[in-house]
Structure formats: structure tokens, C-alpha cells
Design a protein that fits this description.
Length: 327
């Protein structure tokens, strides 16, 4: 069995399980993974066209040259649909912000804006503003870091620019956190710049409670679209998303054996690094955000999606080159 089939099957099952957990609909649970697989194939054709691997493509395929723009437009439209659906901008309403955590529109919007935002500076600025309005710091972090990494890979920015940009990002995230707290009705005496250090301290305290938790949850956290909320319910009796560093969810599920995932993560990361560089930059940014959030269901989806796309790219590129060689 080839790698694309293995990764595609795992990806299908993961999405099917997650969608069914949230929607309880078998129809949607089948449609969503099939759409993801279909878009993955279109993306592969797009990359082959961009790289000049496909010679004299069918006229119908030439529209795929604009796929980066189309993905960005999907991100913008998904954001607009989300605001219409809930009747407000998420960052201004804490309850709405929590309600959209697992909404497919938010996930689609975030993913499409991050990828589209890497295309050029204008798209990046628009994506940055929209992700800021969504109210999730992880989206901002992933967009910002992936954009910097990709520009560095292209040789367009220096180490100095990256360092200064990250310092600016830390201030933006701190201010964003303060805005979110104010919309929640909570009143903290802590300053803006102290929030980030407090958050790191809090994540470590959650990890400490996980290590001392008497039982293991055997996949109910990592394989659950609402895993972070389950951590809050188990440890604090509070239905709210809790972050616990990269090791927290794995340790809560499987104890010390969960840390063996680090070995697999290294193999996955190496495989993704050797593939499409734009995909890797996004993956590296997501992996960085997981240092705080913790390995979760969404990260597994992203990892196997990228493994699937890269394996397809390798396979189809070899097939095209072989066909041209024989021709």
C-alpha cells in the first residue's frame, strides 16, 4: 500500500470521526473528508503547474494557476459568513468567540487566510486583520510566523527583521489577550505585558495537575475535537478550553507512553520539511503554537493533510516525469 493511500485513509477517518463527534451527521461526516481530499488533489495539480512539471496542461486546468487567490477568497468569504451567522465580530463578544471554536467556518477561514496570506503583503495584511477579529491568538501566531519563515526561505528578509517582528507580535498578542479578557466580563489587575508570562505560568500549572491526575483518558483528549475543553472539565470542573503545553494532552491520555509520539512527530516533521516549502512553513508555525496549546485533534488533521499532499506531490511528479521521459 502506497504512502498516499495510507495517509489519505488516516486523514479520511480522522475527519470523519471529528465531524461526526460535532454534528452527529453521517452525511456531513462523509462529505467533509471527501471535499478535503478533492481540494488536496487540486492543490497538487496547482503546484505541479506552478513548478512547470505539467507541460501543455488541459485548458480547463489553467484556472488552477489562480488557486492561491481562490483559497484566499474562500478565507475572506468564510469570515464574512461567520460574522453574518452569529451577528457580530467574534473578538467583541466572548460568548460568540467561544461558540465558534469548533465551527467549520472558523476552521476553514483560518486555514485559507493563513495559506492565502503567505502569497503577498496585501493578502497578509488583510488576513492579519480578519484573524485578529476572529479573536484566536493561535491564528495570528500561525499566520505571522509562517509568513516570516517563507519570506526568509525566499531570501526576502533578514534575521534582524524576524527578531524585531516577533517582538512586535508579542506586544500584539498581549493587547489582543487584554481585549478578549475585557469582552469576557472579567476584571484583572495584571498589566498587558505581564499577561504573556502569566499565561506561560498557568500552562505549566495545568501540566502539573495533569501529571498528578490519577487516571489516563486513553485518547479522549487528543482524538477529541473538544479535547481542550475536556481538560478543563476533568481538572477544574469547568467547561472551558485549557492549554497545557505540548506534552499535556498526550500525557493525560497515555501517561509516559504518550511521549513516544515525539519520535513519530520527528519523523513526520522531517517528511514534511523535505516537501513543499510553503506547506512546511505553515506546519512549523502550527508546531510552534502547539508548544503552548498542546498536541490536539486539529494538529493531527493538519499533520496528516500535509503528509498526504506531499506524498501526492512526490508520486504525481514522478509519474509526470516518467511519462515525459517515455514520450
Amino acid at each position: 500500500m502506497s504512502l498516499p493511500i495510507i495517509y489519505g485513509l488516516i486523514l479520511f477517518l480522522l475527519i470523519f470521526y471529528g465531524v461526526f463527534t460535532v454534528t452527529k451527521s453521517y452525511i456531513l461526516s462523509i462529505i467533509y473528508p471527501l471535499l478535503v481530499l478533492a481540494v488536496s488533489h487540486l492543490f497538487v495539480l496547482h503546484r505541479l503547474l506552478e513548478d512547470g512539471v505539467l507541460k501543455n496542461p488541459h485548458p480547463a486546468l489553467k484556472v488552477l494557476r489562480y488557486m492561491d487567490d481562490m483559497i484566499f477568497i474562500v478565507g475572506v468569504l468564510s469570515f464574512l459568513a461567520l460574522t453574518v451567522k452569529y451577528g457580530t465580530i467574534p473578538i467583541l463578544d466572548y460568548k460568540i468567540r467561544m461558540a465558534i471554536s469548533n465551527d467549520p467556518l472558523r476552521l476553514i477561514s483560518t486555514g485559507a487566510l493563513v495559506y492565502g496570506g503567505m502569497c503577498n503583503t496585501l493578502y497578509f495584511l488583510v488576513a492579519f486583520i480578519l484573524l485578529l477579529l476572529l479573536g484566536y491568538k493561535a491564528g495570528i501566531l500561525i499566520l505571522f510566523i509562517s509568513f516570516l519563515l517563507y519570506r526568509y526561505y525566499l531570501g526576502q528578509i533578514s534575521h534582524k527583521v524576524i527578531i524585531l517582528s516577533i517582538l512586535g507580535l508579542m506586544v500584539i498578542l498581549a493587547v489582543m489577550t487584554k481585549v478578549i479578557l475585557l469582552s469576557s466580563g472579567q476584571r484583572w489587575s495584571i498589566g498587558i505585558l505581564e499577561i504573556l508570562s502569566y499565561r506561560a505560568y498557568f500552562d505549566l500549572k495545568v501540566l502539573e495537575k495533569i501529571v498528578n491526575y490519577p487516571t489516563h483518558t486513553l485518547g479522549k483528549v487528543v482524538l477529541n475535537p473538544e479535547g481542550e475543553r475536556l481538560i478543563g472539565e476533568l481538572l477544574f470542573g469547568y467547561s472551558h478550553n485549557f492549554t497545557s503545553t505540548m506534552f499535556g494532552p498526550l500525557y493525560l491520555d497515555f501517561g509516559i507512553y504518550g511521549l513516544l509520539f515525539a519520535a513519530l512527530l520527528g519523523l513526520f516533521s522531517r517528511s514534511i520539511y523535505s516537501g513543499d516549502k510553503r506547506i512546511y512553513c505553515i506546519y512549523a508555525a502550527i508546531l510552534l503554537s502547539m508548544c503552548e496549546i498542546g498536541i490536539n485533534y486539529g494538529f493531527l488533521i493538519v499533520t496528516f493533510l500535509m503528509l498526504y499532499v506531499n506524498s501526492l506531490l512526490n508520486l504525481k511528479e514522478k509519474m509526470v516525469k516518467k511519462a515525459l521521459g517515455e514520450g
